[in-house]
Please model this.
Amino acid sequence: MLQNIAICAFIITLLSMSMKWNSVLVWPTEYSHWMNMKTILDELGQRGHEVTVLTSSASIHVDPNKTSTIKFEVYPTSLSRDAFDAFVLMVVKKWERIPKDRIWLHLSEMQEIMWDFSDCMRNMCKDAVLNTKLMRKLKESKFDVVFADAIGPCGELLAEILKIPFVYSLRFSPGYSLEMHSGGLLFPPSYVPIILSELHNQMTFMERIKNMIFALYFNFWFQTFNLKEWDQFYSEVLGRPTVLLETMAKAEIWLIRSYWDFDFPRPLLPNFDFVGGFHCKPAKPLPKEMEDFAQSSGEHGVVVFTLGSMISNMPEERANVFASALAQIPQKVIWRFDGKKPDTLGANTRLYKWIPQNDLLGHPKTKAFITHGGGNGVYEAIYHGVPMVGMPLFADQPDNIARMMAKGAAVRLDFDTVSSTDMLNALKTVINDPLYKENIMRLSRINHDQPTKPLDRIVFWIEFVMRHRGAKHLRVAAHDLNWVQYHSLDVIGFLLACVATVIFAITKCCLLCCQKFAKTGKKEKRE
Amino acid sequence: MLQNIAICAFIITLLSMSMKWNSVLVWPTEYSHWMNMKTILDELGQRGHEVTVLTSSASIHVDPNKTSTIKFEVYPTSLSRDAFDAFVLMVVKKWERIPKDRIWLHLSEMQEIMWDFSDCMRNMCKDAVLNTKLMRKLKESKFDVVFADAIGPCGELLAEILKIPFVYSLRFSPGYSLEMHSGGLLFPPSYVPIILSELHNQMTFMERIKNMIFALYFNFWFQTFNLKEWDQFYSEVLGRPTVLLETMAKAEIWLIRSYWDFDFPRPLLPNFDFVGGFHCKPAKPLPKEMEDFAQSSGEHGVVVFTLGSMISNMPEERANVFASALAQIPQKVIWRFDGKKPDTLGANTRLYKWIPQNDLLGHPKTKAFITHGGGNGVYEAIYHGVPMVGMPLFADQPDNIARMMAKGAAVRLDFDTVSSTDMLNALKTVINDPLYKENIMRLSRINHDQPTKPLDRIVFWIEFVMRHRGAKHLRVAAHDLNWVQYHSLDVIGFLLACVATVIFAITKCCLLCCQKFAKTGKKEKRE
Model:
């Protein structure tokens, strides 16, 4: 009888494994994050999965008209598209203005930005999950997994409501706080530079102090003060006391958009995979006019200049400084720029409102890349082996360029203060000093030489979670411990108490013996 | 000019990458470790690499006559094969007799065993590296990488002498001390059970105390007292002050023979890959007589009983207890046993001096596996999905069975004290309770469902190290820090001193103010 039950259970398991498991619900974020995620969704679509993206009516880049393999579920939100765009640009501007030389001001202004961003995200999330019609539709769709960018919370709440597992994609969270508090990752501050600190992994004593301050700040302060409103909102929606960080900790897999060609090696956990650079592809041919311009550069080659998808313009004075430097190099320059044509623009420089960045970086004539240091662009430069001149503006851009500098593949300039001469020298250095090309080629080889391609690993893990309804075997038991237990404070306290008791008992015994001997001595003396 | 240098450097790099890089020098260990390693070496051989195994004349299992794809370099050693065999068996016997219920006796006896083993390994290593003719030959052979089992040091010394990178294979070191002190792995004692403690990852308060004691013991005591002789020996050979653990820390990659189907998930580092179960293969057909016997079992199926490659015999009384239990089950039993035929042996049980373990575990008739819990056997049971009755004897065997019990795939018995009834009940449980089959099948699915097969990953990483002359991009900066820096004690001290100074200054100011006010008050009163 029991044997038959065993066989039945086995058959049921096999059947459940062969059943349909290909329906993915996606909670995306905007700008470069979406460009990144779309690569994954397209791949999932091509492999026969049903991909549905939940997006608000205010969405800027998540455009239902621009894709065919993905379905979109657009929900109305009180924010207009223009207001959302203006909000994001305001956040960027605020971040760019943060004074980097005063650590406490730096941290407190950064926190204010996070709060603004967090409030906006929460409103978007509210508009989705409190939309009963939408939620009913999603429940009826019987999704197998939620795939979300962890930087914009809500994906885990959707997964809780729909009672399905979820997988995260993440570039980084401020100070690695999510990876630490929800993911369970360890970040020893002695050799892991906390993100946004702009430090290397080889730190001096003073740098390790700065890193420790960043670690402490993000560890205690940030998480205690910022997340209460999220906890309250999640508790209301789910009808039980819920903590955002604990809900996020239920993620089956964390797909971190970084790898050891770009980042500094650090401790990880079995349910973390580092898939940086998965969006990079071999270059496609350039538009004819651009190709002709590139070929006209002869042996000198081409320099590509862009400050990313969010910045296509800049103050006139800055544009003239850059144009003047670029006019002095023998290379041809392809510059993504949407402002007034600079007066100092050289004949070797052409302006474009949009450029095919990956195809340009993969072009054999390309010698250098002037970049703001966004994760996607830096990865394309690594993939194609192009040394960089970095002019970071905000978010992880300074850290990205710091990493490339530490690996000898980039020179850093300050966007606001750099002179023409400095820019000229920086360009000459990365183009003519063979070490920069050597170093970026080394990173490129590391990037290309992995046991499995990052995009294949991403698809594998999302499919794995759908096949097995989760990946609990990769989850550390740390998630079941409270703070005191996790840090073994109760155990250490108990052991110290034991040691103290033993020392006390021994001391007491010794004292008693001494007293006894002393008494006997006195007695003998008296006798 | 500089540009030409860049191009030349690039061409040289490309040329060096396309040059020959396929010569592997192997430092193996014995028994099941060798059986494991041989699977890798055969695969390397089949993929066109030149594999040379350095082995002593006393070697027991590393037999030059038993293979065709691998070359052997046999060096003379003072120890005879019989003496070495006797020594290993003596170590095993000693370990089996360790009292498990008294923690300090347990730990100190275990340490004595490690020392005996360590001394023997050092003598073997001395015989190799002090053999000048052998060393000259090895230098002339221009190997690209050393591949060694980290449990028997010497591989890293050979790599230092030959100035080439090295890769480790490792099941575990006592208390994870090598993985921690040389590999840089973190083992938070609150949720990572220290190996040899026989604990699970879900620990009670008392179990966490036991785990902390094991962690502290292996952390401080073991490494401080046991390794001095190795340091001295390495320093003499290399002619410079050398520390064993620091030399081992230079390993490019650590291939750990475990995975999350078997082990509990825990923190890792980018240069660690978990490749457990790589030796498992689909079952080949059984010898005809064995196949007929298995088929004769009908729907009841077969039970496989073996205590591993080191134990083929046992006391008569024990054999009779086991035989009597086996005689009472409806299954047929295939028992690897080389002693006197037990009087209580049932008609359903057949004794064999040797069995094709993997083929038997993969046989569709196999219902259960009675095992000592050796890593290789447990992995084969996971691979083929066969629930276990474990009778662990020594080393990691109790921990392996503890892991299988925690995952609901095994029942544990005590070899020395188990009665026939207990064994009968245990067998009935794992065969008839469907949960055991379900659980082991779940582990089996995890084992089969990985982005890349473990054996492919092993070969990939060995080839990677040969192609790139190392894998430094995966190495954490922790290796460059001393103990104080690594634990941030200097930083914490400095910050505490700062805080103390500030508190002191504020208190002093407050006191001064109070005194001033008090004086003014008195003055006013007097007036």
Summary: The first strand of chain A starts at residue 23 and ends at 27.
